[in-house]
Amino acid sequence: MKTPTAKDIAEAANISMSTVSRYLNRTTPIAEQKITAIERAISELGFIPLNAKQKVVKTKEKLIGLMIPTFDSSFISSTLDGMDPAIQNSAYRLVIETSHWDKAREANVIQRMLKQGVEGLIVLVNSLSEAEIKVIVGELPVLVVAGVSEGIYPHISIDNIAGGRLATDHLIGLGHRNIVHLYSGELGNKDSLQRSIGYRESLESAGIDHDAKLSLDGGYRASRASRAVQSLIDQDIEFTAVFAANDLSALGAIKTLLQNGIKVPEQVSVVGFDDSPAASVFLPKLTTIKQPLPEMGKMAIQQMMAMIAGKTVSFPALELELIVRGSTDKVALSG
Q1: Could you give the CA distance from residue 75 to residue 61 in angstroms, rounded to a whole number?
Q2: Residues 151, 93 share a domain
């Protein structure tokens, strides 16, 4: 039986030889339907790629490193949802590692990725500064997603200060003045820091003094946010609204309020941030600030591949949107 060749694969898949060559050598992205046709032809014909000396060609896998702080986050999972189809339709594979908000661990993981031969690095919410990353990776293409741009690397993000203002303005517009803010005090969490700035700017614009007792570390986690709200209740500190820096902590706050017999939104309104999948199914449905997270993930993969290819990248503005649902209402009239 004749040994199948790349030309046979091209004919069987009804695809050009150049496309088959790009697939075999992992040089440039290929449309998903073409990858499927090529792989089906390879399987049916029993094709084994050979070099001129009839030895099996071991094509080097093309890798992109992805550093994330944790998998335990709707923000992370929604962003990864956008990355997945973009990477599947390319010649690249993602190497994903977690830093757990630990700068030393982040540095070690990046060094390990370099040893694996990644051709580019995407950092999703960095703890290390961009300058510290630069010292480790040298001239490797790096793209930072979320956080605050320091000007060294290309950066994809939304305006977190504007998001903090948007959430707090919504509550103030409903008549609330005693507004709790649940932020994340994790080291390096610049997104949360900027949302806190927006919260304070909104209070200042409305002539409301910032009460330090109403700003608590919710840790981006339901359990910590729950404990923070419980501490306010135990101390009889008055508040009529909560702005949580992410949806998970907002849902933790609602759970604790309801457990204490405090109705949401009749007695306390709650706003989250992200518009995670749980926001629209939890009762009451959560008012939140929607980030275009899947779009950010897709853009990150596409732009990283362009950077590896030596192209100049640019990023369109990403819009935030206030999604009003059942967790917010006008402040209840006293008396």
Answers
A1: 29
A2: yes
Where is 104: in which H helix or E strand? helix 103-116
Tokens (6 digits) for 186? 């994790």
Cross-strand bridge partners of residue 323: 288
> pTM to 2 decimals?
0.72
Q: Are residues 147 and 86 in the same domain?
A: yes
Q: Please report whether residue 17 resides in a domain.
A: yes
User: How many other C-beta atoms are found inside a 10 Å radius of the C-beta of residue 8?
Assistant: 16
Reduced DSSP (H G I as helix, E B as strand, rest coil) percent helix, strand, coil of the chain, to 5: 45, 15, 40
SS3 of 278, please? helix
172, part of any domain: yes
Give me the sign of the Cα torsion angle 47, 50, 54, 59.
negative
Angle between helices 247-259 and 222-234 (to 10 degrees): 40
- Tell me which residue has tokens 């609602």: 254
Range of the domain at 8: 1-59
pLDDT digits (tens, 9 = 90+) for 242-282: 999 999 999 999 999 999 999 999 999 999 999 988 899 98
